[in-house]
Write a structure and sequence with these properties.
Elements: H1 18-26, H2 34-43, E1 49-52, H3 59-73, E2 87-90, H4 94-107, E3 115-118, H5 124-133, E4 137-140, H6 142-150, E5 161-164, H7 167-172, H8 176-184, E6 193-198, H9 203-212, E7 217-220, H10 225-229, E8 230-237, H11 242-251, E9 258-261, H12 265-277, E10 282-285, H13 291-302, E11 308-311, E12 326-329, H14 336-343, E13 353-360, H15 367-374
Parallel strand pairs: 1-6, 1-7, 2-4, 2-5, 3-4, 5-6, 8-13, 9-11, 9-12, 10-11, 12-13
Length: 428
Amino acid sequence: MTEKHLTNTRFDSFGLSDQIIAGVRDAGFEYCTPIQAGTLPVALEGRDVAGQAQTGTGKTAAFLLAALHHLEQHPPAADRKPNQPRALMLAPTRELAVQIHKDALVLAGHCGHKIEVVYGGTGYEEQRNALAAGVDILIGTPGRLIDYFKQHVYDLKAIQVVVMDEADRMFDLGFIKDIRYLLRHCPPADKRMGMLFSATLSYRVTELAYEHMNNPQQVKIESEMTADRVREVGYMTANEEKIPLLLGLLKQMPDARSIVFVNTKRAADLVWGFLQGNGYDSAILSGDVPQNKRLSLLKQFTDGKLAILVATDVAARGLHIPAVSHVFNFDLPDDCEDYVHRIGRTARAGAEGDAISFVCETHAFSLPDIEAYIGHRIPIEPIREDMLAKVDPKSRVRIERKPRPDRGGGGRSGQGDRRPPRRSARRT
């Protein structure tokens, strides 16, 4: 983290135990970020917190440290069973759940807690068995958590801490009924500690906080990300110029580590195909990529073995990927908040980065709303001829798809291409 991103508040000024401070040192932390400095004094007193902060600002460490302190100060009941977790941490996506678990293993490394993570798409029996064997801190996505809960693999009667991370994303993915179901089976709000974090404390998020928490104190950290640490630029481009412009810009950035955001899976296939066909090894990260492969691709990108990810908005939130130098909005997003979350993949933890947006014929209508949302204009620069690569249309590598099975029944042509209902998101 850069000094600009940190406050003058030290972690060892809070009176945390030696075991917790040892984990803080293992994580390489010394000074707090603004969201940590704002929420920890409240949470360490045992009061509920509703925090507003963008991803990449250190909120995961804030709620993990507060939870560890609370569990330390409030021993479990003598009759607590091994499969009764003491802390429940809810995340909207598999990737975010995995990242929270990874951070928890470091920060709680000297505390002796058993920490498990559960999420859909992989490891069903393995996760189930680990949970049944006993857990202190349970991290997971709502669908898999409810699945195991209804099978009585664990129960929530001994919960002392509840954390809801990326609460606004929970609404976007249609998880709120699931969240409320889990919270109703926890002890009452005044019998446990509650923490909620969100990019925005909108009316619906605030309503959730006051419904299921004990008079939470709001801590808002306004983001300076789009104004101060991300160099934004836009290019007015025809649709047919987008691939030549992307390849031309990448040619001028030989050492870049980039994420190229698109709005649809079809666009992801197109962009990936031309990248591969023109010497840029890349990978697609989207919702229909199997979980094991998604985690493998993220690791390759994080380790520097892949220089480019082509991603739909499934990757826009909850992923901690260090040292992303460039974010490309190949398609401008339809949702203004998604623009902020996309460019938040770069300029993390106080670093700087570049966000390059293609304002094309199809998605240009989104630009005024995005600029109104972020509170400033995105500089538009002209496209020079030398910025457009010469691209052979035949260079595109095409992904072989398995033919869809004929379900019979005289269904309508093209039915398989319809967008699935929103509730299908709970399969995480």
